[in-house]
Write a structure and sequence with these properties.
mainly alpha, Four Helix Bundle (Hemerythrin (Met), subunit A), 6 helices, globular, HPT_dom_sf
Length: 167
């Protein structure tokens, strides 16, 4: 993590760059809502998540870095397995909304983001459930680094839909 003086000098640039990337991701999501198999939009989302993770890593914002990497991992496998369905896009959008909100909460003086990852994990679980990424065809298990209880998919999705309306 950068020290306070280094962070203050880089904060405005980091925030501007990441906001631009979040806007790009939102545009890609809009394209996917119109054309669900838009390969360019999917590639754009994957690249954008990679860039977000890289910028967050470079600036020592681990929470955002890990979230972007895990979301990219899920998105990549959901797309590769043909499991990214239009019904999963709202869950994906909520993940990007949380990421944008977290970027705004980074302390401009220290660069710290003092949040636990429970909401991230909940949204990632909901997205994974919507995509069916917990299990691929041919019963090959995908282990994203945490467990997804597929019996809770509907509960997770509805709980996070309700929570996002209060934000």
């Amino acid at each position: 993590m950068l020290n306070g003086n280094e962070w203050q000098q880089l904060h405005a640039e980091f925030l501007s760059d990441t906001q631009t990337l979040i806007c790009r991701a939102d545009e890609c999501l809009s394209h996917l809502e119109l054309i669900s198999d838009d390969r360019d939009a999917m590639e754009c989302l994957l690249t954008t998540l990679h860039q977000l993770a890289g910028k967050a890593d470079t600036h020592g914002v681990e929470t955002v870095c890990d979230f972007a990497r895990q979301l990219r991992y899920l998105l990549y496998f959901a797309n590769a397995a043909g499991h990214l369905r239009p019904m999963a896009l709202p869950a994906l959008k909520r993940c990007f909304e949380l990421m944008a909100w977290q970027l705004e909460l980074i302390d401009p003086h220290t660069g710290s983001l003092a949040l636990d990852d429970s909401e991230q994990r909940g949204l990632l679980d909901a997205f994974a459930c919507q995509c069916g990424v917990g299990k691929l065809d041919n019963t090959v298990a995908v282990n994203p680094g945490w467990s997804v209880n597929t019996g809770q998919c509907d509960v997770l999705a509805s709980r996070h839909a309700d929570h996002s309306e209060t934000r």
